[in-house]
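The protein record filed here.
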Amino acid sequence: MRGLIFIMFFALGGFVGAQFPGFTSQYEQRLDGAIEELRTIIERFDRDAAEQDLTRAEALDKYAGTNDEFLIRQGTSMQQIFARYEKLTNHQAALQNANIAEQAIGFVQYFDPELAQATWAQYDPNVPLNAEGGLFAALGGVIAWLTAAGSWAIARLPLRYRRRIRISGE
């Protein structure tokens, strides 16, 4: 029975692990789209600032220096857009031209919950039949199997301890 449970955990972990390459591929497509949209907004902002003979920093200072709460919030929103753009472009750079291990590390390091949630909403699970999918399937299976084995060992600890007490007490 225990062997069957471990096999089921391995198979489930393998299926979940195999999703990583496909999910990250769709995530990268969304990442590219988000960067392009932010770039458009930033270019428009910079162009509008330049038409007023202002640098980006000067334009943001104008927002901050006003007494109008709406304009202050618009300035704060633009600063957040600049920060998000920088974060996403760093994320994109970490994922582009990276090997499998570097992609996994970059995905975790720069993980963006908003993009991941949007990707997951449109994601269709599949099992890729290539080396990368096989590698992540095996990795997921091993992690799930080790989790099951560790949980089994922890769950049995009280039983082992109780047996030792009975044997030594007799």
